[in-house]
Amino acid sequence: MADYATRKSADYSPLVVHFTKDKPFLRADQVVAGDPLYGFKGATALERLLNILTTRVVRASPLPWLTRNPRAVCFTECIWDGLVQLSEAYSPYGLVFSKRLVFEKGGGPALYVRGDSFKALTEAGAVPPALESFVQPFDPTAVIKQGVPIDFLHEREWRLPSDLPFVYSDLEYVLVGSKEDASSVIRTIGSANLPDHKVIPLDVYATIKNAWGTR
To answer: What is the DSSP string of 178-214?
Structure first.
C-alpha cells in the first residue's frame, strides 16, 4: 500500500475533506421518505455535520448527470488554500479523513471524462456500473446540456460509492465556521471523542489572512 503521508508535490495532501452544505441535495428528487437523508433535505450545513458526527456515518447521496442514479460520498483532496475557497462555495463545515481510510473502504479519485465522450458513453449505456459513481463529466463547452458548462476540476474529487461508517479515531480533523461552533460541536460529541485540537475554526484563518493580506 502506498504511503499516503508522503508528500509527493507542493499541491499534494494525504487528506480528503467531505464538506456539508446548506443547499438542497443535487438530486433531491431521489431522496424520498424512508431514505436516511430525507430528514435532512432542509437542514443547515451545521445540522448535517452534527448528524454525521452523532451517527458516525457519512451517507452516500445521489449524483447528477448519471443514468443509473448512483450514489457516492464526495470528498476533495485540495490543499489548504483550495479548501478555504471551497468552504466559501459550500460551507465551512466538513470532516477530514485520510486518503488511506477512504481507499481501503473502496474509494478513490474521481474519473474526469470529456463531455462529448461522457454523452456518447451514457447514451449507449456503456459506462460500467462499477465505475459510474466515480465518473464526473468535464464539459466546459456545454456539450451535455446546452448553455450549462461543467467544470469541477478545481474540486479535485475523491469518491466512495457507499456510505462511510467511521469511528471517532478515524477523524483527522473537523472543520467548523467559528470558535463558538467548535465549542458547541465538542460539547455535543464530547471531548473524549473529539479533542479540541482536532476541531479547526475557519474564521481564525480568515482573521490571519485579513491581518497579513493585501489591503
So the answer is: SHHHHHHHHHHH-TTTS-GGGEEEHHHHHHHHHHHS-
> How does 182-195 read in b/e, with b if 16+ C-beta sit within 10 Å?
beebbeebeeeebe
Q: Is 100 exposed, middle or buried (0-12, 13-18, 19+ CB in 10 A)?
A: middle
pLDDT at 80: 87
User: Within 10 Å of residue 66's Cβ, how many Cβ atoms?
Assistant: 19
The pTM of this model reads: 0.91
Residue with cell 465556521: 177
CB atoms within 10 A of CB 152: 15
Position 112 scores a pLDDT of 96
pLDDT of residue 18: 97
- Give the DSSP letter string of 34-87: TSTTGGGTT--HHHHHHHHHHHTEEPPEEPSS-TT--EEEEEE---HHHHHHHH
The C-alpha angle 173, 178, 179, rounded to 5 degrees, equals: 80
pLDDT in tens, 177-200: 999 999 999 999 999 999 999 999
